[in-house]
Amino acid sequence: MKTPYFLISRKEFDNNVALLNKAINRHWKNTIVGYSVKSNGMPWVLKYMKEQGFYAEVVSDDEYSLAKACGYPINRIIYNGIAKEEASFKEAIIGGAIVNVDSWREVRWIKELPEDVDKKIGLRVNFDLEKMCPGQTAGGKEGSRFGLSYENSDLEKVVIELSALPNCRIVGLHLHNSIPTRSLDAYCAISKKACEIARVLDLHLDYVDIGGGYFGGLENRPNYLNYFAIIADTLSEQFDKEKTTLIVEPGQSILATAISYVTSVVDVKDTIYNRFVITDGGRTQIDPMFRKTSHFYEICADEYENRTIFPKQVISGFTCVEGDRLFTLIDQPELQEGDKIIYHKIGAYTYTSASQFIKFLPSIYVEDENGIREVCKKWVAQDFISKQINY
């Protein structure tokens, strides 16, 4: 197989899903899992998640269309985010999707729907999680830009306006927050806020959507059982497990360990400062934001342990960006042209975010009990040209 390419492990996916289901069955059986499409939109992945009985959690009209194209009926889609379009938003409500309203323009769209349409609405809540968990949120002291503010009463105003509409009922709250620490304390705080809002606004809900962002597949980090235990214990103070559905939206925690990126060494060059090992892989395909400081990697090379030890080797990518340097080997055996470097646990936010900069998207393979098969071919020039008008 020509490198670079992404390699999906079906076994690892199955293991991660089994762990998730174990936590669900132990702590809150009445749970809907919404797979976060933004985490990785590979069609094979979406169809796999559908086979597990998961919903598709989408945050734009493009993702909404992709989910439908991959076989998700509208009533198995969770529609979140600030990038909804009016037509798909209205179609989703009419079709029975779980729709969480994020803004006043969406409230306007709901008011434009025919009176006889059954409108079951969820609300994305903007609240001050940073105050509850200092230093743990992505928005920090500037706050989040998502949802309807609880503290300034916008959330309450929307509840009042929508509740007055014919055939319109507030059925859920969506409280997802970006939590870089992914701490258990943060999920406890989110759950407490859900209880408070339902009590203060006198909401009788069909579901509470906690969102995603969980750790997965890393030692010495919380796992699904830890998260679900604290979420369930806290929500139980206000909600009945038999009557209220818990919605979770994992992406990274299912994906991360299940996908690898396989690359080859194509050149080795020395300068007065460094030895650069050039590979056909690059940061633009597994670290598109250039934020990672380390990688889980494996070197596959013949007689590797018997080679000459070299003091410093800078492993670099294929782009013309100087920052396309992936990691550095110190006092390790020399790498040579043709050696393989495999990056593990890169499943989330890589393929979806990977750019077409300099190289097109690579092939995708799946490994299962039947061997390895290609599920998506590498992009070529004609794929790019076919979208151009009057070329």
Write a short abstract of this structure.
With 391 residues, the chain is α/β, with parallel strands linked by helices.
User: What is the number of E strands?
Assistant: 18
Structural class: alpha/beta
Query: Roughly how many Å is the radius of gyration?
Result: 23 Å
Mean pLDDT: 95
Task: Give a verbal description of the structure.
- With 391 residues, the chain is of the alpha/beta class.
- Helix content is 28%, strand content 28%.
- It is built from twelve helices and 18 strands.
- The radius of gyration is 23 Å and the shape is elongated.
- It starts with a strand and ends in a 6-residue tail after the last helix.
- The mean pLDDT is 95.
Write a concise keyword list for the protein shown above.
391 residues; alpha/beta; eight-stranded parallel beta barrel; 12 helices; elongated
What is the topology?
Elements: E1 5-9, H1 10-27, E2 31-36, H2 43-51, E3 55-60, H3 61-69, E4 77-83, H4 86-94, E5 98-101, H5 104-112, E6 119-126, H6 129-132, E7 148-149, H7 154-163, E8 168-174, H8 184-200, E9 207-211, H9 224-235, E10 245-248, H10 252-255, E11 259-270, E12 275-279, H11 283-286, E13 296-300, E14 309-316, E15 325-333, E16 340-344, E17 363-368, E18 371-376, H12 381-385
Parallel strand pairs: 1-17, 2-3, 2-10, 3-4, 4-5, 5-6, 6-7, 6-8, 8-9, 9-10, 12-14
Antiparallel strand pairs: 1-11, 11-12, 11-16, 13-16, 14-15, 17-18
Helix pairs in contact: 1-9, 8-9
